[in-house]
Design a protein that fits this description.
Elements lengths: L45 H26 L13 H9 L6 E3 L5 H6 L4 H4 L1 H4 L8 H4 L11 H15 L5 E6 L6 H13 L3 E7 L2 E2 L2 E2 L12 H5 L3 E5 L3 H16 L5 E6 L18 H8 L3 H11 L5 H22 L20 H25 L1
Helix pairs in contact: 1-2, 1-12, 1-13, 2-10, 7-8
């Protein structure tokens, strides 16, 4: 009987399939990247700071007005992004016109900052449309209410653009709760393998509805998860608007020039309840919220602008007046009852209507005609 000798396995040819093993270049910084309150703040262009301030003030007013509309019965629900405005604004401003934004249900402000009509953005939350705007025209995907399902869509679009030779980048937004979904894993894995030009922005606002981050993951940070997929992870102060914009702009540029995807975690805080249907006092204390009020994104920018003599009373008034004008227009148009055609149910499903949809449309048309005829008979 021959004795078997243990030998090390040596694949032939050389293991070109071997994944990256050095994680050091992919690891995020130990602390969130900041600009405001550091020496770097003095090097930020004054025009950019004023632009960010105007967008943040407008965004805060948009959130308060949309929240008020829920109390008036004009919106079925509203997930406020108050306190997270810096993430929303920076996400929109980091993109070029040719790029795509993939928002979650909380990212209405990002869509508005991208240039969409606020009334159309709120169409989903009003219950009028699944998407109240044309995604192709604005290059903003539909607001996604299922958690993290927009992430694989962003990867698919970015991968397709790369195959076609289009220098298009997709930026996908998701909350910390969404990172617990399988779609998050699938999207990051495919994006890294394909080196798709996509940027993932995780807005870590502390809670997945009522579940704190510590009960979702034991990772050092959500940005560390990037290493397991083979992409860089960046950690940034999500309330520092110029810092978020810089990190996202660098990630977008890297993706556009063939560097592949990046996972950015923005550490922020959800100042208000999950939605108007949630009672946040059941799972967090007011002193915790007050700590974050002192780190408000608007206050941080205003502190820098005031310290550099760039924000006087007139500039504050101009930003506030513009925000109030937007809110007044939104309020007036949202208080008007929309005229909706039930047949529109079938208008924006497929580019070419399927046989099944045609059959369903004819059935609904017949039912509507019958109801109309019955109504006319009753009035005679």
């Amino acid at each position: 009987m021959l004795a078997l000798r243990a030998v090390a396995h040596r694949p032939t040819p050389a293991p070109e399939w071997k994944p990256r093993t050095d994680p050091a270049p992919l690891l995020p910084d130990p602390e969130p990247f900041r600009i405001l309150g550091t020496e770097a703040a003095g090097r930020v262009d004054p025009g950019l700071l004023l632009k960010l301030h105007a967008h943040l003030v407008r965004g805060r007013r948009f959130n308060t007005q949309a929240t008020a509309l829920t109390k008036q019965g004009r919106l079925a629900v509203y997930p406020s992004s108050t306190g997270q405005e810096a993430c929303q604004v920076a996400a929109a401003l980091a993109l070029e016109e040719r790029d795509w934004l993939f928002p979650s249900y909380r990212d209405t402000l990002a869509a508005v900052t991208r240039g969409l009509d606020p009334v159309q953005v709120l169409g989903l939350l009003r219950g009028d449309w699944h998407t109240g705007y044309d995604p192709r025209e604005h290059r903003v995907a539909p607001l996604s209410t299922p958690l993290a399902t927009q992430l694989p869509h962003a990867v698919g679009l970015a991968h397709a653009a790369r195959l076609r030779g289009d220098e298009v980048v997709a930026l996908a937004l998701v909350g910390d709760g969404g990172t617990s979904e399988g779609d998050f894993h699938e999207a990051l894995n495919f994006a890294a393998v394909w080196r798709a030009p996509v940027v993932f922005l995780v807005q870590n606002n502390g809670f997945a509805i009522s579940v704190p981050l510590a009960k979702q993951t034991a990772a050092p940070s959500l940005a560390h998860k990037a290493v397991g997929y083979g992409m860089p992870g960046r950690l940034v102060d999500g309330n520092d608007a110029p810092a978020v914009l810089q990190v996202l702009s660098e990630a977008v540029a890297r993706a556009r020039h063939g560097g592949g995807p990046t996972l950015v975690e923005a550490v922020t805080y959800r100042m208000e309840a999950h939605t108007n249907a949630d009672d946040a006092t059941r799972y967090r204390e007011e002193p915790e919220v007050e700590v974050w009020r002192a780190h408000d994104p608007i206050a941080l920018v205003e502190r820098e602008l005031t310290g550099r003599g760039l924000l006087d009373g007139a500039a504050r008034a101009a930003a506030s007046d513009a925000a109030e004008a937007m809110a007044a227009d939104l309020r007036e148009r949202m208080n008007a009852d929309p005229v909706l055609d039930p047949m529109d149910l079938f208008a924006h499903v497929y580019a070419e209507r399927t046989g099944q949809l045609r059959e369903q449309a004819e059935l609904l048309r017949a039912e509507l005609a019958a109801e109309s005829a019955a109504g006319e008979g009753e009035t005679r």
